[in-house]
């Protein structure tokens, strides 16, 4: 792990301390002394310096033991190299942060919910601008989504989403939603079904407002119907 051959690494206190990164050294010594004085086990993270100068992060566990015959006390421990694990974790955190930033700048409302209860676990901040409700208001009420679907569209929307979810099938639904100011807004809700062990586990969706598109579509239908009635 550190690049030393067994014969060139003398096991003693000074050597053990010398390979600890200087910024972590005082804390590591404190924990080692605590183990010796209070006979406690320790479990800490610290940086070690390899023979070639590379710095690695390890999880260090140690405890004090006594030899049966001599009664001599010894401090024993084990190092686990967690450098790659921590680096990967940080990269994932950065990716998630970037993804969240992208989501929160979409022209729509990104959301996540439990696939079995339809209880929402995340609603992006755009909901405030589009529907008038804050994410906090939405998440505070278990059946918020169901209760705010326009009554005439409610049963169809919920049933369709339930049926497609049970089939683990991605789907899209158009329905009307009641905004905070009382306005009725049309949405196209695109839903991705995430499964675990062959069963629906989580839903991710994007609600995009289509009120203007619906109004234009309805106006065209009305015009066609009017023209047909005039011809007849």
Automatic annotation (TrEMBL):
Pfam families documented for this protein: PAS_3
Domain of life the protein comes from: Bacteria
EC number: 2.7.13.3
Gene Ontology molecular function: any one: protein histidine kinase activity
Boundaries of every PAS domain copy: 95-155
PROSITE patterns cross-referenced by the UniProt entry: PAC (PS50113), PAS (PS50112)
SMART domains xrefs: PAC, PAS
InterPro entries registered for this protein in UniProt: PAC, PAS, PAS-assoc_C, PAS-like_dom_sf, PAS_fold_3, Sensor_kinase/Photoreceptor
UniProt entry tagged with the keyword Transferase: yes
Domain PAC per the UniProt entry, residue ranges: 42-94, 171-222
Signal peptide (from-to): none
Known catalytic reactions: ATP + protein L-histidine = ADP + protein N-phospho-L-histidine
TM region positions: none
Alphabetical keyword list: Kinase, Phosphoprotein, Transferase
NCBIfam families named in the record: sensory_box
Name of this protein: histidine kinase
């Amino acid at each position: 792990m550190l690049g030393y051959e067994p014969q060139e690494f003398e096991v003693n206190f000074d050597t053990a301390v010398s390979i600890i990164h200087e910024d972590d050294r005082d804390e590591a010594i404190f924990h080692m002394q605590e183990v010796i004085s209070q006979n406690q086990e320790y479990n800490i993270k610290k940086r070690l310096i390899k023979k070639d100068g590379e710095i690695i992060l390890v999880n260090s566990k140690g405890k004090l033991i006594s030899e049966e015959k001599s009664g001599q006390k010894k401090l024993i421990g084990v190092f686990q190299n967690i450098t790659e694990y921590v680096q990967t974790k940080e990269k994932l955190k950065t990716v998630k942060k970037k993804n969240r930033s992208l989501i929160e700048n979409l022209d729509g409302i990104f959301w996540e919910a439990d696939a079995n209860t339809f209880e929402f676990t995340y609603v992006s901040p755009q909901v405030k601008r589009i529907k008038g409700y804050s994410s906090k208001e939405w998440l505070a009420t278990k059946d918020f989504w169901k209760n705010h679907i326009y009554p005439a569209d409610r049963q169809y929307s919920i049933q369709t989403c339930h049926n497609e979810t049970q089939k683990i099938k991605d789907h899209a639904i158009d329905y009307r939603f009641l905004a905070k100011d009382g306005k009725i807004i049309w949405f196209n809700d695109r839903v991705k079904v995430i499964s675990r062990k062959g069963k629906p586990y989580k839903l991710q969706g994007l609600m995009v407002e289509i009120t203007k598109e619906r109004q234009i579509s309805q106006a065209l239908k009305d015009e066609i119907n009017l023209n047909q009635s005039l011809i007849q």
